[in-house]
Design a protein that fits this description.
Oligomer: single chain
Shape: rod-shaped
Strand content: under 5%
Number of strands: 0
Largest sheet: none
Order of helices and strands: H
């Protein structure tokens, strides 16, 4: 089996060019790596933005829900006040009615005494 020996470059300028190309290749690779990192970082920023947006939407819905609840609560409080006022009014009317009934009984008794 023939043995292949590494090719020896006789021309030092070719050797220099190859080294320059290697250096350029390394530089390009590192630039590409930086770009990849920036893209990855940008993706992370985008994901974080989407998470924040989702969180914001959730909080907005939660706020809306709480506002509706508060609105219902305010309406209930107003209705309770109305009912209390109604109850007070009926209570006064009942007192008034009782007073008139007592007065009528008294007058009826007095009338009966005069007729007797």
């Amino acid at each position: 089996a023939p043995k292949f020996s590494p090719v020896k470059i006789a021309d030092p300028r070719l050797h220099e060019q190859i080294n320059d190309l290697r250096k350029e290749n390394i530089r390009y690779r590192s630039e590409i790596e930086e770009i990849h990192q920036k893209i990855e970082s940008s993706d992370n920023v985008q994901k974080n933005y989407e998470k924040l947006q989702h969180s914001y939407k959730y909080q907005a819905l939660e706020l809306e829900r709480l506002q509706k609840k508060e609105s219902v609560s305010v309406q209930k409080d107003a209705r309770i006040r109305e009912l209390v006022l109604e109850l007070n009014e009926k209570s006064l009317q009942t007192e008034e009615l009782t007073i008139f009934q007592d007065e009528n009984k008294r007058l009826l008794n007095t009338l009966m005494q005069y007729k007797a």
